[in-house]
Amino acid sequence: MQEKPNNEVLQRFQSGDTFANEDLSNIDLSNHSLVGIDFSGTNLSGAILKNTDLTDGNLNDANLEGADLSDAILLRTYLVGANLTETTLENANLFGAFLSGSLLSGTNFRGADLRRATLGCPKCIPTAPFGNLTTFENANLEEAIFGEIKLDGIVLLGAKFNGAYLYEVDLSEAIYRESDLEGAITKQGRN
Which of 64, 95, 122, 183 gives 20 to 30 Å between its CA and that of 165? Predict the structure, then answer.
């Protein structure tokens, strides 16, 4: 498979091209502004997108398996149905992002800002519990919406859930302290 050079992708982006359903695996687009980009259905497995601004981007159904989005900016970005297996989003800004139906297995959200983000996957079957730990350690999940999801092997230690809405969330296999869920809203009311 021939990898596209990042300068070709950047030139096409500046001219308004879309990258829907393309193969951009292992590309390095670190430290660039790609505001509003269309990566829907794109293969970005192994891509390096550190400190990349993907604000208002469309990454629905994208394959981001093993991609590195550390410190990336994903404000209001659509990641619906995206494959985020073994993806690093450490310290990323996902304020208001849409991650419904995304595959989260071994995903690293350590220190990420997920305020007002939407997460949930009623039909996703998680991998074996504690096989590939997804971590939200020290992440800010204030006012985030978690809907219909089983959080098997999810690490929530130190996460902020103030005002987060947990609807039909199964935490029986999650790693957390009761104090981590302080301020979260469940069917029973505010914790």
Answer: 64
